[in-house]
Amino acid sequence: MPAKRRLIVSCIAAAALSLLAGGGIAGQSSPGTDSVDGAAPGPPGAASSTAHGAYLDYGPAGVSRMAELSRWLGGAELRVGHTYLPGDLWVNIEGAPDFLEAWADWRQADPDRMFVLNVPMLERNEERVPDDEVRTLLRAGAAGDYDQHFTRLAERLVGLGVPDTVIVLGWEMNGTTYTHRCGPDPAAWKAYWERIVTAMRAVPGQDFRFDFT
């Protein structure tokens, strides 16, 4: 088996085990949508158990654009809000309140809404950090060196009234650019992913779901 294929298979297997240990994921999505059951959207105003939405922008701008997308779709109700935490610095991965407040307000306005948050596993996530350094960082994470950052994020989400946020942790881990990629050490990546889930679930009042992607 080619080396690249072995790497991808190893990473996927590690993530699957993490998922089973971590307690489940959010719903599957059809291409181009955030959907809890993958069904196609019905006509505007039609009753449906499917929640739809789209990633539109970071921070408050993403919230304001949801109304524009709804109008463009003929008045379709958007029940999924989706954004990414910045991965430049730990302080931003911890979820700066001014970044999350608008999303929390949107989520709380309707009990049927869902908030999906992509969370980087390491800072400098888009700086093309070399493999040897990524390996060291993943091992440090697996040893618990970064637990406090994810505890703070969980506390902030609970404090903002969104304890049921769907956490998309370490997305696209089988890539070659993000610092939170698994390639340099799949075993350490798996252990680190599980450790983050454990740290966040230890926060009182949380009801998070973790979606592996």
Automatic annotation (TrEMBL):
Residues 30-49 are annotated as: Disordered. It comes from the Bacteria. Keywords: Hydrolase, Signal. Residues 1-21 form the signal peptide. GO terms for molecular function: hydrolase activity. This is Glycosyl hydrolase family 26. It comes from Streptomyces sp. SID7499.
